[in-house]
Amino acid sequence: MTSRWGAILAVSLLGIAGVRPAGADVASLRIVTPPDLAMLPLVVAAHGHLIEQQAEARGLHNLTVQWFTPNGGNPIEQLLNGQADVVATTDLVGFLMAWDERTGTPQEIRGLAALAQMPYQLLSRNPAIATIRNLGQKDRIAVPAVKTSLPAVMLEMAAADEWGAAHYDRLDPLTVAQSSDAADTALHSGKGDIDTDFSRMPYADDERGDPAIHRVMDSFDIAGPHSDELLVASAGWCAANPGLAAAVLKALQQADQFITGNSGEAAELYARAARDQTVSVEDLTDIIGDPDFAYKAAPAGLGHLAGFLAATGRLAHDPGRWQDGFCAAARDLSGN
Question: How many CA atoms lie within 13 A of 254 on its CB side?
C-alpha cells in the first residue's frame, strides 16, 4: 500500500493567516487537520457546515471556518505559533507530553474533543510469534516513533503487564520508527528487518488481507478502548471563546451521530474529499462500520495512559482527572 491513504481533503484550503491573538468568540475559526480517516467527523462537519450552524445557534453570527492541512511540522506548534485556533493531533502520547511540557506556562494547551476510537493491531509475518513472549532479538517491530508514539507506549504497557512494571521497556530495543506506508510495504514484501507492525486501520485492515500476516494482539487488549486523535486548542483560546468551543464540540457530536447512522454516505463524503480514489466506497464503508472503530467526542483511556507515562517518568504533571487537560466545554463528557 503506497501513499493512497496519505491525501485527504481540505474542504476549503485557504492561505494560512498571520499570527493573531485569541479573541472573545471571534467571527472566524482556523482548523488544521492532518490526512487521516480518523478525521471523518471533521469532514462531515465541514460538508454540512455544522460548526457554523452551532455557532449561529449560540448567537455567534456569520462565523467563517477555514480548513487547513499541516504545514509539514507538528500541528501543535502551528497552534502555539498562532497559525491556527484548533488543531487535530493524531497521537494521545504527543498530546499528553505537549500538555505536560507547557503546564504552568503561557502556552498551556487543552483538549477540546476526541475524534475516534480504534485499536492498533500488532501484526506479524513471523509464524513463530503467537504472543509478545515469542518476540526475539532478531525481530523488529515498526512503530510511528520509538518510545514517544502511542503504539510504542502500548507495547511498553503490554511488557509491564507480561513481565512486571520494572521491565516495561523490555521490547523497546526491537522497535523501529517507520511511517505507516513504509511499514505496510515492508510487512507485505517480507524483505528487510521488519517482520512485525503495530498499526491501525486502514493499514491493519490491508495487512490482514495478506495470508502471510497474522494478528498477535491489539491495543484494546492492553488498555481497553481508547481514543487515538484529539482536537486541541490553547488554554487561552478555550477561556476566551467558550461559546465557540461549545459549538465545535456539539458539531462533532452531530457528525458522530451522522456517521453511526449513515456509514455509507459518510464513506462517500470521505471518498469525494480525498484526492486518491483507489479505495472503493464499499471498502471505506466496511472500515467505518468495523465494530472496533467508533467516532466519539468523549475521550477514552486518557487517564490510564497518563498514569503510565507519569509512573515511567515521562510526565512531570499527572492530570489526575482527564478533565484537567480539557477545555471547560468538554468536561461534562462521559470520558475516562
Answer: 19
